[in-house]
Amino acid sequence: MRVYKAVDYNDLSRKAANIISAQIIMKPDAVLGMATGSSPIGTYKQLVEWYKKGDLDFSEIKTINLDEYMGIGPENEQSYHFYMRTNLFDHVNIKPENTFIPDGLEEDGEKECARYDEVINSCGGIDLQLLGIGGNGHIGFNEPGTSFGKTTHQVALSESTIEANSRFFSSIDEVPKYAYSMGIKNIMQAKNILLIASGINKAEALQKAFFGPITPAVPASILQLHNNVTIVADEDALSAAKW
Ligand code: GLP
After folding, report:
1. How many domains does the chain fold into?
2. CATH classification of the domain holding 52
3. pTM value > 0.85
4. Residue from 34, 39, 223 whose mutation best tests the ligand 1 pocket (most atoms within 8 A of CB)
5. Which of 63, 171, 188, 211 is most exposed, with the fewest beta carbons within 10 Å of its own?
């Protein structure tokens, strides 16, 4: 595990974008695992800037997102489809057919989860998986208690996640209660993992994930067993442990 301390969110975003850029440069047809939430917004913004300067080429890159809410479509502003288009895809030369996100409108869970696992396999696995972390230690939408052996699955979101994500919706009642998420097994099969975290409300989750027992109660704790984890976090997020 490598830990890079960022002085602030801007620095965190540049460091994370640098690591992703290095992956793109070293392997122009890399498969990038993408995350959503507020943490990666600055990272995507930085990647777009470097693309516009001519420093990055996404033409052969494939992206596979971690998760998507169920019951809302790609045109819904809160969907992760919409997030990815507005924060990254619409601003770089990635081919739309090379971007993959679970289909939140597919009601047949078994079918959608099998399809998504097949997407990951047919891309040859993920070279670099970007991750945020939930305040309760979730990664993707793998909530506490989720078995480490799961691949893509349907998730009932926890109360704390619904509450945390309600800031993006006009009311808490609008937050979807279910989602599709890559499983911990899919995440652990990524060749490299880049976890970003900023702010004091992530400090306890990071401490538990990397210094506590490896347990499904803290989904991110499984990352202790991954050979290639890089953490980029600010001082507040790192403040609950001696890194
Ligand atoms: C959501 C996403 C996760 C993300 C987490 C933290 O639940 N599904 O992938 O890591 O929130 O989000 P934020 O970065 O906004 O704190």
Report:
1. 1
2. 3.40.50.1360
3. yes
4. 39
5. 171
Distance from the alpha carbon of residue 230 to the mean position of ligand 1, in angstroms: 17
Residues 6 or more apart whose Cβ sits within 8 Å of residue 54: none
Asked if 137 and 144 touch (Cβ cutoff 8 Å), the reply is yes
- The reply to whether 237 falls in a domain is no
Atom of ligand 1 nearest to the CA of 133: 10
Residue nearest to atom 1 of ligand 1 (CA): 37
On whether residue 207 sits in a domain, the answer given is no
CA separation for the pair 95, 85 (Å, rounded): 12
**Residue 237 alpha carbon to ligand 1 centre in Å:** 14
Cβ atoms 155, 69 nearer than 8 A: no
27 falls within a domain: yes
Q: Take atom 6 of ligand 1 and give the residue whose Cα is closest.
A: 134
The domain of 57 spans 2-199+212-229
| pLDDT by residue, tens only, the chain of 243 residues | 999 999 999 999 999 999 999 999 999 999 999 999 999 999 999 999 999 999 999 999 999 999 999 999 999 999 999 999 999 999 999 999 999 999 999 999 999 999 999 999 999 999 999 999 999 999 999 999 999 999 999 999 989 889 999 999 999 999 999 999 999 999 999 999 999 999 999 999 999 999 999 999 999 999 999 999 999 999 999 999 999
